[in-house]
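Two quick folds needed for the group meeting slides. Do the first one here.
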Amino acid sequence: RRASASHSDLFAETFGERPFSGLPHAGVVSGWAEIARYQAAAGLKAQNMWSAEVTPPDDINAFNLYGHSFGTAFPFFFHDDAAHQNRRIGLIALPNAYYEPRIGKGYEDGRQKIHDYLDDSAFFGRTSVLFFHPHYLAPEFGYDVQLSYAALDEVERYCREKRYTSCRYTADELTTWWHERAASGISRIETDADRTAFTVTVVGYTGMIAKLPLAGREHPAGVTVDGHETYSCVKTIDGLRWLLIPVTESGDHAVEVMYPQ
């Protein structure tokens, strides 16, 4: 508790604002909910401490690692223990599913690992997080930045080739994005043989995508948002067909999907 508070105070004294998302280096956590409770009280909204895979014991700074040793590709909120009513703590764990991608000398398999990771994420509908420390992209710190830039350039090139959607976010921006996604949602669902209607609530300025399982239905005859025809597409994710409907503006929106007769 004291360490979390003092780190937050030191950050505020140095930069003039409270930290928003954190990343401890080679941190060791005891207990479960305590660290999340203390860090949320210190002002943090997310923690990037979940590693991609088990780090080799002889190299705690290992790079070019990806996996899901934390059990999921998606961020999650911490929940407190029974003594604190199992309440949800306003701190998100942001898994670094691909930690420090590299391409070049010593990382000859980097290109193929990036392709495999992105393809697996697209097939199974996972979120992809490729994590780069800023100082490995800044030559003034003395690192071989070409290893990181080669990987970053390949990620963006391959996403264009495969038509995957990618975004460059700082940790704070990603934290804001996930908190907005958590506050967004779908409600008031009505469905019958002819149509499915529901309300989409969007929090934030980046919009969201509503996913509707087609479950054997043909492509819809029409899709509207607030009474206006809108773009939608059908994608197969993890072997299941989904209708994807972008809703781009904040607020409540009425969505209606009509099926062919």
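Then this one, please, same format:
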Amino acid sequence: LTSPRRLIGILFIVGYYLMIFRPFRGTTSTAGWMTIPFANLPPIQVIDAVFFALFGVMSLLYIMGLTSYRGGHNPADIDVLFCTPVSPKHVLIFRMLRDSLVSLILPLLVMLVSWRSTAGAWESLSRGLNPAAAASSVRLITVSYCLMGLGWVALGYAVSLMANRPGLVFDRMRKGIGLGLIVFLAGLGYAVYSMLIRDLEGKGIIATLNNPWLRGILFLPNAAVKLTLAPITGSVQDALVGLATLAAFIAVCVSLALS
């Protein structure tokens, strides 16, 4: 619990558990009370906002761990994992891919534990939509999350490899990056709180999550949402824009890490 990222991640899991398995009094089902505030809103707007919130929370967890040190393989590990001599760049790429796959464990565990309740909520939210398109969007969640996670992992390696070098300059750089992240997260949290406090009803929550400034700052979750919801919206342009944004972010971050 010494890491803020781990602490907030645990709080998120506990909050999700309480939301799913301990619904408010006076409701008979989890899916019912989850969809009550959004009953009179278009389903696509609600689904868009929910996906953006989920991708946004996962992105913030990645951001909080950008400066954490990521140790490399020692020579003994490399001798076991790689049968022939390989360049450090290949080892780094292997680690980034491995860590991206490992990052899938937490969402998969949450989905397995809460599958019945989540499926009920999804059925209520997607009512009236094309079933085939809705099923395709569910499958694309994993693709979008993997691409987004790979980008954040690569950026994390780039930042940590640069800022965790020995020396006073790099020590100050690491502290500066950490302070900048704290200011960014605090400012973002205050801005979201200020928008939400004005209207805590369904329309207010949806309006906050669809705020152009918020979508612009969290552009990566927004791109993941565009790609995920492309089958439902039927927009090829959204799919291409989302995929291109994720691919460009991955390419830039991998290039920075390898450099």
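Slide caption for protein two: The chain has 13 helices and no strands.
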